[in-house]
Amino acid sequence: MATKPPKADIDESRVRVTQTKRVAVGVPAVLHALQIANEQMGVTRSVQTLLRVNQKDGFDCPGCAWPEEDKRHTAEFCENGAKAVAEEATLRRVSPEFFAAHSIDELRAHDDWWLGQQGRLTHPMILDEGATHYRPISWDDALREIAGAIAHVADPDETVFYTSGRTSNEAAFLYQLLVRGVGTNNLPDCSNMCHESSGSALTETIGIGKGTVSIEDIHEADLLIVAGQNPGTNHPRMLSALEKAKARGATIIAVNPLPEAGLMRFENPQTVKGVAFRGTKLADQFAQIRLGGDQALFQAIGKHLLEAEERDGGVLDHAFIAEHTSGFEAYRQARADASWRELVEATGLPEKTLRRVGEAVRMSKATIVCWAMGLTQHKHSVPTLRDIVDVLLLQGNIGRPGAGVCPVRGHSNVQGDRTVGIYEKPSAAFLDALDAEFGFAAPREHGFDTVGAIRAMRDGGVRFFMGMGGNFVSATPDTAVVEAAMGRVDLTVQVSTKLNRSHVVTGRRAIILPTLGRTDRDQRGGREQRVTVEDSMGAVHASRGRLAPPSEELLSEVAIVARLCGLLFGGADAAASARLAPPASPGAAPEQDIDRGQVERTSAEEADGSNPAEVRHPLNVPRADWAALEADYALIRSHIERVIPGFDDYEARIDKGRTLHLPNGPRDARRFATADGKARFTVNPLEFPRIPRGRLLLQTLRSHDQYNTTIYGKDDRYRGIHGGRRVVLVNAKDIMALGFAPDEVVDLVSEWTGPDGRIEERRAERFRIVPYRTPRGNAAAYYPETNVLVPLDSVADVSGTPTSKSVVVRLEHRDR
Ligand SMILES: Nc1nc2c(c(=O)[nH]1)N[C@H]1C(S)=C(S)[C@@H](COP(=O)(O)OP(=O)(O)OC[C@H]3O[C@@H](n4cnc5c(=O)[nH]c(N)nc54)[C@H](O)[C@@H]3O)O[C@H]1N2
Ligand SMILES: Nc1nc2c(c(=O)[nH]1)N[C@H]1C(S)=C(S)[C@@H](COP(=O)(O)OP(=O)(O)OC[C@H]3O[C@@H](n4cnc5c(=O)[nH]c(N)nc54)[C@H](O)[C@@H]3O)O[C@H]1N2
Ligand SMILES: [Mo]
User: Fold this and answer.
1) What is the pLDDT of residues 761-779, one digit of tens each?
2) Model pLDDT, residue 816
């Protein structure tokens, strides 16, 4: 069944291991990017496309959320940005003929790489209940099926609407409105698995769930700590910014269990120096920390600073602490009480090293801490991030040039999606503004996050699922549970650019809606539309695709959502909504079709004339001219401007090349929107993972050749792994001590103590052991192949993020 790894994925025998690289980027990276681009797009289209990436009149790179520098190079892209673009701008097509030729069972046997390689989706497709193949369906029929399914659930909370982070502000804003119009806040998104811990910790402590630095701050910093992040692969353009900071004398400290190439040394392909020499040495210090040891590291830094203050004075920013913070005294006491022995055990670093990092912080006049998934995907991620804030507050390192917190976001518009309302726990202020703008009452009760949605699906409480981008089945933890959960849903709908596992592991019925990507020209309402996105630093700018779309059949995400709104809430398309399709199998849940509570079909008269054939909450649906919004995205922006603070003069400010910087209280004015208006010092009991005897702690991470669940290829060049992904990186001493051999093929078995105290086991078969420089007791393997090992219930406190960076596993010999 689908829970088995696809056959083609069992490629550990072909893996070749070479030396790990000490230098990132440089000329080989550019050549590799061009090779992939040429394979997918041909030479002319490659050049045309790549020159438009991140240019002021071009499109925003769909790769990562790192901001553009103000002065742009002709080629403002990186190797992995080029791969992301090539993947989308590919000339390969997945057409109705493709679906006729391949059954669902056959597609399921392929791995994620093969599925993605087939190319762009070209037509709406439907999988009927019990069918072996998808068949084409018209847009009108597909959207009516979907609206019908939504309208016919007994309770709006039986619907779930997922979002991935590539969706534009315009599409995301309309989508959340659709969902709230339907009557639920079930808006899980990829953020729940990504930077939710950052949002939680920063909102609590500094009153905003975002970072507080700009790209100029990075350049001006005196000290940059890069913790739990692999920018050489996942945010390569960040390396240029680090290089610039370095040239101005900044110190860089890398905190990571792995010696990642990009953190060590960087060859900038855009400067002559990069080509001619060995590049810039980036990290001045490399703290090779144990998985999950970061909270201890930052507590150690805090302790060191407070001790130095006591001894010599002049370390703390007393004026800042007095004026802008609360809770300092309790924090000071807690650090005084902490024991170095425990801090050393948790980090795996000697006291001397911890103090050396602390000393660098003490000497710095402006410190920035950057982080990504290595810090957000642990059980104690939120307390860890609170402890980072504590350290920065001590020296007033928030709200002044060159200083602050810098959670480095993943998806290119994941931050923007949240800004415009993709959130299962919306604030009352946001909902009030939405209500006023659209003349309805949005639901107040919080909805499901990603893990909550999976639980509800697993337990049979969800009848409709829609994914606005992303790949829910492969990205989420506990693959076997998720696959079974999807199967219990009546209708699953995926709005997608490329084929992926969520199209072949589906509900009883499934619909694929192919859509435009960032690079595609979006011609609507007789003109070219642009969209907007927000980068990791709160800067919003326009993005306009230039390539001819892969098929005449594609609708933009905005158009898809606007038409669904029309069908469900009336408006220009109201006549059509009268013909909403009935549920496919009315027999399936007859009791739910009888008493529909307040959800009723009404006549034109009841809906005060404007909404004939209204479907649900007739008097309580958002009102707008949906067809007009589809024809002119500027109208959506004007709604956003009225609902969300900070978007004043939206249209004018995003006009050609201009950037709109969203307000950021802590950064702009040391204003903290917490209960008492102060930034909060917090006291967080020290936590770190304890690894049971004979076991390893596994982190699941990205290779150099993937974008989340999109696998570009099977190499991980910087780590010296070629030709396969089913590998597990283990310290050579652990391999010996545990009684295994390098290159041996093993099963990974995760062990998790369930709620009833019993140990649950999950298995991922056939991984080749690769000796690697990771701390003793720690191991690493790629996601998504290892998601099957991550228990659904193993989530971070407060944020609910799956603990993808700390999974207890044992290796098991296979019968050879
Ligand atoms: N090319 C490419 N770019 C991407 C993506 C992609 O898949 N491919 N994904 C995008 C997305 S959505 C995101 S969220 C980001 C992800 O960007 P990253 O967070 O860089 O991605 P990961 O591969 O998960 O890497 C985690 C890093 O943290 C380290 N780490 C793991 N656990 C710990 C720990 O306990 N402590 C410390 N100090 N370090 C730890 C790992 O060794 C690794 O270097 O990248 C975005 N950009
Ligand atoms: N074990 C483990 N699990 C993890 C992580 C981990 O580190 N370890 N990382 C987590 C993180 S940080 C994240 S962000 C999630 C990622 O989760 P997702 O965002 O759900 O996954 P992606 O792989 O980025 O989604 C790729 C799909 O998006 C579609 N797509 C691409 N561009 C567009 C577009 O413009 N519009 C639309 N509609 N569709 C598009 C394509 O069909 C493609 O197949 O995974 C999480 N899961
Ligand atoms: Mo992410």
Assistant:
1) 999 999 999 999 999 999 9
2) 57
Give the number of other CB atoms < 10 A from CB of residue 758.
9
- Please report the pLDDT score of residue 30 as a whole number: 67
Task: pLDDT band for 16, please (50, 70, 90 cuts).
Answer: confident
Q: Using CB atoms within 10 Å of the CB of residue 623, give its burial: 0 to 12 exposed, 13 to 18 middle, 19+ buried.
A: middle
- For 354, what's the count of Cα atoms within 13 Å in the CB-facing half-sphere? 28
| Residue to probe by mutation, ligand 2, list 497, 504, 505, 700, most atoms within 8 Å of CB | 497
Q: If pLDDT is split at 50, 70 and 90, which confidence band does 626 have?
A: very high
**Where residue 515 falls among pLDDT bands split at 50, 70, 90?**
very high
pLDDT over 50 (residue 756): yes
Q: What's the 72 CA to ligand 2 centre distance in angstroms? A: 28
Q: Give the rounded percent of residues in the chain with a pLDDT score beyond 70.
A: 87
Mean pLDDT taken over the chain: 89
Q: What is the pLDDT of residues 52-75, one digit of tens each?
A: 776 666 778 777 788 877 655 555
Ligand 1 pocket (Cβ < 6 Å) reads 63-64, 80, 194, 227-230, 233-235, 255-258, 260, 289, 291-292, 294, 372-374, 410-411, 699, 701-702, 706-708, 805
Among all ligands shown, which has an atom nearest to the Cα of 63? 1
Cβ(233)–Cβ(707) below 8 Å: no
Q: Which domains does the chain have, with CATH numbers?
A: 12-88 (no CATH), 196-412+676-680 (3.40.228.10), 696-813 (2.40.40.20)
Asked whether 390 and 331 are in contact (CB, 8 A), the reply is yes
Q: How far apart are CA 769 and CA 86, in angstroms?
A: 32
76, 218, 221, 254 from 224: Cα distances, Å? 23, 8, 7, 9
pTM to 2 decimals? 0.92
State the closest ligand 2 atom to the C-alpha of 518, by its place in the atom list counted from 1.
35
Q: Note the ligand closest to the C-alpha atom of 712.
A: 1
* Residue 316 to residue 308: CA distance in whole angstroms: 9
The 3 state secondary structure assigned to 708-726 is CCEECCCCEHHHCEECCCC
Cα–Cα distance measured from residue 243 to residue 219, given in angstroms and rounded to the nearest whole number: 9
**Site residues for ligand 2, CB cut-off 6 Å:** 164-166, 190, 193-194, 373, 410-411, 468-472, 475, 495-498, 500, 515, 517-518, 557, 700-701, 708-710, 783, 787, 790, 804
